[in-house]
Amino acid sequence: IVDERVPPYTAIGKFKGTMTCTAAVVLHPRIILTASHCITARDGTIKRSNLSFRPGYQAGTDLGRFEATVWAVGSKQSFKRQSAHDASQDWAILILDGRPEGVRPFLLGHRSVETLKSREGQLLMPSYSNDVADAEVLSVDPACSVRDLVWDVLVHDCKAGFGPSGAPLLM
């Protein structure tokens, strides 16, 4: 379990769309990224209202609550099965109705797969995983490794139960 009030963890929060997803990450003061299946209903429609984000969420406390509007979606997702190709399009970018105070957005990096593979056991995946305190606290797998790249999707060995959707990999 990590302190959600300390950077970089303040830029991760709980996102609620068609379900409560474990994480969305702040990429710009008012732009977040999460998994598109978090805004896809069982019938395949994209939910566009009543979406919310709570940065720095930990056991019912947070750094504010923000309404979110869908800006772009990779693709609708199937809940029956998901291939690596489908996973490569499982993203959604949303705009917040306000700017979370005290939250420093993540800087995106571009590293080669070879560089990421060479960092075996050195990547972190912070998420609200259901196998830790019923997804009510931000926890981190501190020893992840990237194994491969398939359809522009990083295949990793991070350990988490259900719930890490939208979680970042940190180096």
Taken from the alpha-carbon principal axes, the silhouette is globular
Please report the total strand number as a whole number.
Answer: 10
Over the alpha carbons, how many angstroms does the gyration radius reach? Answer: 15 Å
Lateral strand order in the biggest sheet? 1-2-3-6-5-4
Give the uncertain stretches in residue-range form. none
Q: Percent range for helical residues?
A: under 10%
Number of helices: 2
Quote the beta fraction: 25-35%
**SS-derived structural category:** mainly beta
In short:
By secondary structure, the protein is mainly beta.
Please give a structural write-up:
The structure is a single chain. The protein has about 170 residues and is mainly beta. The chain is built from 2 helices and 10 strands, in the order E-E-E-E-E-H-E-H-E-E-E-E. Strand 2 (about 20-30) and strand 3 form a beta hairpin. The longest helix is centred in the C-terminal third of the chain and has 6 residues, at about 115-120. The two termini are about 20 Å apart.
Give the SSE map.
Layout: E1 12-16, E2 20-28, E3 31-34, E4 51-55, E5 66-73, H1 84-87, E6 92-96, H2 113-118, E7 123-127, E8 139-144, E9 146-150, E10 153-156
Antiparallel strand pairs: 1-2, 1-4, 2-3, 3-6, 4-5, 5-6, 7-8, 9-10
Features:
six-stranded antiparallel beta barrel, 10 strands, two-stranded antiparallel ribbon, single chain, 33% strand, 171 residues, globular
